[in-house]
Amino acid sequence: LRLFIILKPEFKGQISEQNIIDWVAKRISAYKKIHEVGFVDTIPKSGSSKTLQRELIEQEKKKLGLK
């Protein structure tokens, strides 16, 4: 499970992926734990304010150099 986060400017460089994973792990059930964290500037939304998961996946593929 991958979690995408928009960090406020004052927290950039202060919070790591592991900080987020540990914080979430303390608050949710084991089967819901996240494995990866992705920091993004914006989360793409549709006209009806739904998250466009496909676009997030495409952004990550571009970052990793995948097709």
TrEMBL record:
**Membrane-spanning residues where?**
none
The AMP-binding enzyme C-terminal domain is annotated at 3-50
A Pfam family it matches: AMP-binding_C
* Entries under InterPro entries matching the protein: AMP-bd_C (IPR025110), AMP-bd_C_sf (IPR045851)
**What is the protein's given name?**
AMP-binding enzyme C-terminal domain-containing protein
Question: Which source organism?
Answer: marine sediment metagenome
